Amino acid sequence: MLQYRQKKGERVCGSRFRKTLAKLCSNCTKKLGTEPVPSKRDGSSLKIFDEWATKCCETGCEFDELRHFCFVREAERRLAADETLNHEYLPVLGFDGFCNAARDLVLGSDSVAIKEGRAFGVQCLSGTGSLRAGAEFLCRILGMKTVYVSEPTWGNHNLVFKNSGFESLNKYKYWDATKRQVNIDGLVADLEAAPEKAVVILHGCAHNPTGMDPTREEWKKIADVIKRKKLFTFFDIAYQGFASGDPDADAWAIRYFVEQGLEMVVAQSFAKNFGLYNERVGNLTMVVNDTSKVAAIKSQMSLIIRANWSNPPAHGSRIVHMVLTTPEFRQQWSDAIKTMSSRIKDMRLALRTHLEQLGTPGSWEHITKQIGMFSYTGLTPSQVDNLVTKHKVYLLKDGRINVCGLNTKNVEYVAKAIDETVRNVQAHL
Predict the structure, then answer these.
(1) What contacts 384, CB < 8 A, 6 or more positions away?
(2) Whether 154 is catalytic
(3) What CATH code would you report for 89-325?
(4) Beta bridge partners of 235
């Protein structure tokens, strides 16, 4: 995320303190950055922040929902005008229309699993709630106690599964820091050594935090070992459509696993790809091979959800349902995510190009091989410290940067800062 000193007629975007948010650009979706963030303003004219999940436009301003996701606003207006709607509780398992639309989005409306009646959705509280509900079902109902997460992974995975009752939390190799690519051999080897019925958390697309996904051939290897070793797949997909601009391409791995006859659960979030962060819109898609078990699973899921949030919120799910099932809105959403994805790709290419033009030591092709909002730059903690203290470029200690924080006005500055850092700061860990 970007922050500029305010000049006459110029908007300020970003903040490190909640108390200043009211003074910022009214069009911004306001989210706070992660460490390292200094406790006092340092007065620099240009600051690049790593954010949990914010999107920036070319003006340096965060993603303007009102302009880009106008169909969300229009859906809200239509819902507000619908006198048949009320504020009664939704069913415990959620709004059926939304659950079906979300399921169809991730599996494809022509999915055999859907046609055979063995795939269904359960509305949850965004991605985290979907993970929690799925984890509790696997642990408390099916007795699964062992889970494997990628190294590295999203920070909340371990916390959610630990608090859901899992006793053995393990890591499988994922990132090759030297080659800056997926360590497919190490990944497969770790899964080969996993015990039967171990749960494997896989990122459906735009792996967080590395931004590097397996190739389709590598996904096939992963599916093969999971099938042979009788492991259980738990997909987490928070960026469908937003990763590549194509929702079908982003869901390819999940659909391939279903085609291979693998049972699974899929945690879906609509925070990023619909800009509905505070609506907590999520869905847990469940795929089984025995249709006779569907009713029993839904019954158990009802008990799990009843003890957690009792009933899901209606507003956000109604918005997503309307957008996905209204041809006009669906097309507008498709166009919007293509635009955002394209801009991210452009910034990745621009950063890599500037680094290569500067002759920055090392290879930087991994920046354009990665997809989604984040990039694992390969910078070490000592180099990150230099970027923070000397150049006022803020990113995580592990070198992860939010590509959405880059635009045509600052990408060259960031490249020069990285260049100076790589040349002058020893890459010790």
Answers:
(1) 36, 395, 396, 397, 399
(2) yes
(3) 3.40.640.10
(4) 202, 266
Bond preceding residue 312 cis, omega within 30 of 0: no
Annotated active-site residue in 50, 236, 333, 392: 236
**Is there a catalytic annotation at residue 162?**
no
What's the rounded Cα separation, in Å, for the pair 51 and 401?
8
| Domain 2-64+337-424 indexed as CATH 3.90.1150.10 | yes
Domain edges within the chain:
2-64+337-424, 89-325
Which one of the listed residues 31, 50, 55, 154 is annotated catalytic? 154
Q: How is the chain split among helix, strand and coil, in percent rounded to 5?
A: 45, 15, 40
Catalytic status, residue 250: no
Name the pTM for this structure: 0.82
Residue pLDDT, tens place only, 56-112: 334 444 444 434 588 888 888 998 999 899 999 999 999 999 999 999 999 999 999
> In three state form, how does the secondary structure of 302-343 look?
HHHHHHHCCCCCCHHHHHHHHHHHCHHHHHHHHHHHHHHHHH
Tell me, yes or no, if the two domains 2-64+337-424 and 89-325 fold the same way: no
